[in-house]
Design goal:
8-stranded mixed beta sheet, Metallo-beta-lactamase, Chain A, 2 domains, alpha/beta, binds zinc ion
Length: 302
């Protein structure tokens, strides 16, 4: 036994120094290259001098995130059914709050996730159209706004606000009241450098005609159009589309939705105008991201 133990100790003495050296090397390597040795879950930061516009796949509804290096803006919060999808999407990007949350009009497919946004994220200002609505979802949103302490701004046509280098102009609603709640939609023109985006909520042809009459073709010209009312034939009048004459159009809708959105006539109009159309309901499509460097708008791949 003693001879055996003596051999073991000698062996241990021989092996110990290389084991220590290997351990030291591993610790040093981990400190020098931590991203190689563990999965890096840090979300990609926004590239300085650019903005991203995310049309988040929330099924039948709208939710648009504008990311800048000066903060974020959210336009609509999708239906309640997609609340978790929306929350996960934002968290994956490392979004914790918004300078502005715009809720275009009080329909459920636009404000269903609003209470979640106001409860789980920080919101500086909420922008709402000047109309009330009778629904549990609307009441929940108003209560969540109250509890969040966010500033409430009532949308006025022609009003402008900024987020970093972004200029946002409210182009609608232009009347105090509408028969159709969709026409109460806040329509936003987002300008970044020479590039521009037109976010139309569910505004229909009545509101489109008012926008045209109030602002004229030059103001409407944009690189990208978020097609009104999920591509319904009640929006995107030929005159409006001609004025905007976008390069890209995005249709936000749920696959196999019961409204038949987008309607064939709208797709035909966009095709005839030579617009490249992106849809959130396309297989493998999902959320759609565009990047603007202030000069050109490009779809982001991957
Ligand atoms: Zn809608």
């Amino acid at each position: 036994m003693p001879r055996k133990r003596g051999r073991f100790i000698r062996k241990a003495r021989r092996l110990l120094p290389p084991v220590i050296v290997i351990a030291i090397l591993l610790v040093a390597a981990y400190m020098a290259f931590p991203h190689i040795l563990r999965k890096d879950t840090t979300p990609a930061a926004i590239v300085s001098g650019s903005i991203e516009v995310h049309f988040i796949n929330v099924g039948q509804g709208d939710s648009i995130l504008i990311r800048t290096d000066s903060g974020n803006m959210l336009v609509d919060a999708g239906p309640g059914a997609a609340e978790e999808t929306l929350s996960d999407y934002l968290e994956r990007l490392g979004v914790t709050g918004f300078e502005y949350a715009v809720f275009t009009h009080p329909h459920e497919d636009h404000i269903g996730g609003a209470d979640m946004i106001l409860t789980d994220f920080t919101v500086g200002s909420v922008i709402l159209p000047d109309c009330t609505y009778n629904s549990a979802t609307y009441n929940r949103m108003m209560e969540a706004i109250d509890e969040s302490g966010a500033e409430v701004i009532v949308a006025e046509t022609g009003a402008k606000f900024t987020l970093g280098e972004i200029k946002a102009t409210i182009l609608a609603p232009n009347s105090p009241d509408y028969k159709n709640t969709n026409d109460n939609s806040i329509v936003l023109k987002i300008e970044y450098g020479q590039t521009s985006f037109l976010l139309t909520g569910d505004a229909e042809t009545v509101s489109e005609a008012e926008i045209l009459a109030t602002y004229g073709n030059d103001m409407l010209k944009c690189d990208l159009l978020k097609v009104g009312h999920h591509g319904s034939d009640t929006s995107t009048s030929p005159e409006f589309l001609t004025a905007v004459s976008p390069k890209y159009a995005v249709i936000s809708c749920g696959r196999g939705n019961s409204y038949g959105h987008p309607h064939a006539v709208t797709l035909q109009k966009l095709m005839n105008a030579g617009v490249t159309v992106f849809r959130t309901d396309e297989p493998g499509g999902g959320s759609i991201v565009f990047v603007s460097d202030g000069v050109i708008v490009t779809p982001k791949s991957g």
